[in-house]
Amino acid sequence: MGKSLYQKVWESHSVGTLADGRTQLFIGTHLIHEVTSPQAFGMLRDLGLSVKYPKRTFATIDHIVPTVNQDAPADPLAADMMSALRQNADEFGITYFDLASGKQGIVHVVGPEQGITQPGTTIACGDSHTATHGAFGAIAFGIGTTQVRDVLATQTMAMEPLKVRRIEVNGTLRPGVYAKDVTLHIIRLLGAKGGIGYAYEYAGEVFDNMTMEERMTVCNMAIEGGARCGYVNPDQKTVDYLKGRPYVDMDDFEATASRWLSFASDADAVYDDIVKIDAADIEPTVTWGISPDHGIAVSESIPDPATAETPEQKATIEEALAYMKLPAGTPIKGVKIDVAFLGSCTNGRLSDFREAARFLKGRKVAEGVKAIAVPGSQIVAHQCQQEGLDKIFEEAGFEWRGAGCSMCLAMNPDKLVGDQICASSSNRNFKGRQGSPTGRTILMSPVMVAAAAVEGAVADAREVFDIAHAAA
Ligand SMILES: CC(C)[C@H](C(=O)O)[C@@H](O)C(=O)O
Ligand code: SF4
């Protein structure tokens, strides 16, 4: 009987069984950032412990870092977090991609970029979007602060095995339909809690055909579907992407590459569940509510509680619409926006800015809309600048910012004001997510954010930009 990638990685990293029955899992790579690590280091000090494998631990700063005047945060708390990370990295001998390194950025952008993220490995990070790294065929878990402590001290953590659901998307995506739409569509179908207890294996023609950056967008949101992690099996594209990156050992790379590929799920692997989706059914998708599973095609109408199938559904729709202040049963297209945010670990990579810039070129952001473009890392910023993308954004009326999480979570000065509505390429539309307790978020793909910025309202990018006829 064949094995899935999840099983192979799990088995090759299990180092013991604890008294309570849980598995002690070796963590190949530990990524840390400023928000969830300070207390973990504090606990380590209290226990008189050191970091077990400093060479397997990598730090970056992303959440609190401002996107203008980056090294001088006005907020004293942010300044403290910044210096705490510096001190912890120095004291424990951890590699830290700080602002001066030219490699700083959102942890889930930096890992793959540096070639730290590798197939067949286990990765942990005190951050729920760690699933992003699964795009490389790694099993990557978001963990809490006490687990960060455990991993720092022992390079292992205690876990129960997951079930594996294979999500197969076959066929060809229609023009104007992006990886973000695929992931929003999956979450819409299976629910924000549908993946609880599962690892998601994304398979089929659509994922085979995706670039590594597109695969990252999909895996990034596995957690928004409730899954503990998500992955795509490694293939030649994975190998090509990683070849020559700073942390990839290039001695006998061929052997490394074939080891990586050997982790891919066997053809006769057995799954706990299989879901099949037709690529042709996926449309540009946007959210209308306060959970990532509140998604609809841009051509659809905002749900009406009156037509809900169950009392629970009715209550959910009512709560979401009361918060979003959107009229039930009316088209989502045309809902006015105040802010356009292009960035985050979901969609803040070179290909996201390239694709949005392709359509923004020569166009202007609608009057009254504040639009910001925030590269996911300093390297992404540099790549964009080399291609002149920053100029295209600026000429269109976007502000071009420095790298960080920015308005995705607004633990920095980039925040919504009052009940502003934001067209956002990020991954969460929870109440108050973007920094204002009454702020409203509509999730969508980068090109849809560009279309919304230009129209000043939720728009179908296929119409605004005539995507079907635009040359790739
Ligand atoms: C601050 C951090 C712990 C948090 C997470 O775990 O994901 C953040 O990155 C988010 O996206 O909400
Ligand atoms: S960009 Fe957003 S989702 Fe990603 S790590 Fe930062 S706050 Fe979390």
Automatic annotation (TrEMBL):
Family in the record: Belongs to the aconitase/IPM isomerase family. LeuC type 1 subfamily.
Residue ranges of the TM segments: none
Protein task: Catalyzes the isomerization between 2-isopropylmalate and 3-isopropylmalate, via the formation of 2-isopropylmaleate.
Top-level taxonomic group: Bacteria
Residue sites binding [4Fe-4S] cluster per the record: C345, C405, C408
Organism: Haloferula helveola
Catalysed reaction equations from the record: (2R,3S)-3-isopropylmalate = (2S)-2-isopropylmalate
Cofactor note: Binds 1 [4Fe-4S] cluster per subunit.
E.C. numbers: 4.2.1.33
Limits of the Aconitase/3-isopropylmalate dehydratase large subunit alpha/beta/alpha domain: 7-456
PANTHER family to which the protein is assigned, alphabetical: 3-ISOPROPYLMALATE DEHYDRATASE, HOMOACONITASE, MITOCHONDRIAL-RELATED
Cofactor(s) this protein cannot do without: [4Fe-4S] cluster
Keywords associated with the record: 4Fe-4S, Amino-acid biosynthesis, Branched-chain amino acid biosynthesis, Iron, Iron-sulfur, Leucine biosynthesis, Lyase, Metal-binding
Subunit structure: Heterodimer of LeuC and LeuD.
Record's protein name: 3-isopropylmalate dehydratase large subunit
The protein's annotated pathway: Amino-acid biosynthesis; L-leucine biosynthesis; L-leucine from 3-methyl-2-oxobutanoate: step 2/4
One Pfam family of this chain: Aconitase
